[in-house]
Amino acid sequence: MPVSSIIETFRTQFIEQYHDSILPSHLKALDAMANCRTDGSLQMLAQCPECEHQLFVPHSCGHRNCPHCQNHESQQWLEQQLQKRVPAEYFLLMFTLPAELRKLAWEHQRVLYSLMLQCAWETLRSFVQNDKQLQGMAGVIAVLHTHSRKLDYHPYVHFVMPAAAIDKEKKQWRTKEGYLFNDRALAKVFRAKMLEAITNEELILSERHPKKWVVHGKFVVGTGDKALVYLGRYLYRGVIQEKDIVACKNDQVTFRYQDSKTKRMLTRTVSGPAFLWLLVQHVLPKKFRRTRNFGFLHPRCKRLFEVIQYLLGLNPNRALSWLKQRPPLKCPACGAKMRIIQTGISRFELLKLLLEQRSSRIPIENDLAGELTV
């Protein structure tokens, strides 16, 4: 079920029902997704180098919450992270924010999200520095998420981390296997750092915040490839795929999700406006970076990572041929690979081009061609 159709159907009801909670960024996201790759969006002109067949293709909206867009950015991010893999056992860790603090996080998103990323990293950094087997600088890849599998608001941070560290002074590479850190110890330190950071920001803490926080850090993920692919899948392409929207009828939307405990596919049915709210509540603050690299994987540590590559004999240009590449746009007439010759064409410019080329011999395709009259 197309998200754009659901937006068009329930947009008015959504605004009426959630007008007290809607932000301008929410409406901007809905507008972008509603017009993504439609006749109302800007167009690109593609041409076949073999037969000169031309084709107008609608632009994607480029919004990072759109289920259609950001495939190229996601692929770029994944390739960059895979190029930085090191020979060590990788772990997938998750630092969660207690339910009692979610209201505070919602009201101060930019601040709380940044604190979660920074405090979780500082927790891991201190554990690596004090670990007898590692005792050095760690390197981690962090990704912020704000949704549960049921699309409820649930901020947490994923870390993909090699069980390894570099001693910059001695230029030694150290690793460990089988076990990283104690989850309860991580949660205790993370809690202390978060509460202190929130207090320093002069934010009002709820009187009810639990003593026990939750950190999961026992997931061994081998070389890290599959974990990075998993995170990259949800990084830029919204919180739900259109194939998981199974029905839209009687003013209700039904979507499916995988239960985290049983691994079974379940469904959830909500009203149309409520479904739109489930989507837009995960729109991040403008220009907020949900993924960050820390330690020896930070962009500023490029020279240090080159030292690591030299010490370990790593090839920085390792082939990633197993990654799925974006399929090319093929000519519908001869099957050759088409190339984009013009972008950002408005509807008015499109009609003008169609009129100018109507009498030419170059075949051109677009749905608007049928609207023209001689």
UniProtKB/TrEMBL annotation:
MF terms (GO), sorted A to Z: DNA binding; transposase activity
Transposase zinc-binding domain residues: 6-97
Residue intervals of the Transposase IS801/IS1294 domain: 139-302
Transmembrane spans: none
Protein name in UniProt: Transposase zinc-binding domain-containing protein
Organism: Candidatus Kentrum sp. MB
Gene Ontology terms: biological process: DNA transposition
